[in-house]
Amino acid sequence: xxxxxxxxxxxxxxxxxxxxxxxxxxxxxxxxxxxNYPLVKKYDLLRHTEGIELSDICKGWxxxxxxxxxxxxxxxVPSFPEALSDVLDRMGTEMSGLGKLQYKVGLDLSQxxxxxxxxxxxxxAARASHAERHAVxxxxxxxxxxxxxxxxxxxxxxxxxxxxxxxxxxxxxSNLERMKSMKANGTAMQSDVDMVEAQCLEMLQQLxxxxxxxxxxxxxxxxxxxxxxxxxxxxxxxxxxxxxxAVNRPELELFEAQTQANEARRSSIMSGLMPKVGLFAxxxxxxxGFDYFKSMMNRDMSFNMVAGVKVSxxxxxxxxxxNNERKLQIASENISADRDVFLFNTRLQTQSQTGRxxxxxxxxxxxxxxxxxxxxxxxxxxxxLENGVIDATALLSKxxxxxxxxxxxxxxxxxxxxxxYQLKYTLNR
Length: 429
What we know:
By secondary structure, this protein is of the alpha+beta class.
């Protein structure tokens, strides 16, 4: 029973250790950074704005009602000719004419029947415009990936330097103890001990500097991801080349969205050339009414109404049609030119990055052998020092050479992975 309990406790401890020390991947960091970046909030704002604009466009088909009121004074108003007035006077009929003070409260109603495709063109333009803005945001947000990946590899490089510096420091401390023992036995001088101890202290200073760099990189990574990265274990990515070398950047979607928005503007131009048909109705209560004769005989207010069908066709749009189409053509050519420039620069960058990857792969072929040889030379130097063949200066030189070889080997590996990820970023893979 006791053995089972011990086994259970050990299992729990292992599970907890696994959870607490779960490694953070570069993909996880990029995803968190893109989720936490303030720019993400604009996506919701864009969706709400698009819905509002489309709703406003659809409301253009609703009846338009205008309520108005006015009071006017005219110095001259229509009146009967004097000859006709005399005849009416002899008949005993008084005709005072229209009053100079006129007033009314009215209502105008209009209902579009056919707008020549204006509303449809506006909806297409609104959708295309929002698609373009969305593509701009996607492009801006994609740039976060490069920044986060750069910081991630900065942490890996700093941590690797910390490990190599710690290993070299342990080696120096071991040789320091050896030098102290040799001095006690009379086979080494105090200057040799001091030299090795000074090298230990310098290596300790270097370790402090590198640890500070690592903390700074981790702090930046934490700001992007919203996580505490000071004690996080970062998983070293695999050096896997992208399977597809085709460019799949969000900038290409932006160029396509710009093209679609330009075509939507073309539809707006064509719809502006078409006639418009609609119903209308006007009604007002006031003085004078439509019956001028009645209004001339008395000053009573009356109800008046008119309704019908209205057809309008503005030919002014034809004057600007050619120039507007030319502007759209120039805009399309600019978009196409920008796309070609982007693809050209991307291909150049891809070639440069693949060349750098090949260079690092060739360099790394000899790294292991160089480290092995430098370690052999250092071990031989340690033996020579004990036999009094060389001094501490020569040993320190060999230790430094081995440290540089190990550090270069580790750097080359991380730089290779970073170069591959830079290529993946360039291609969006």
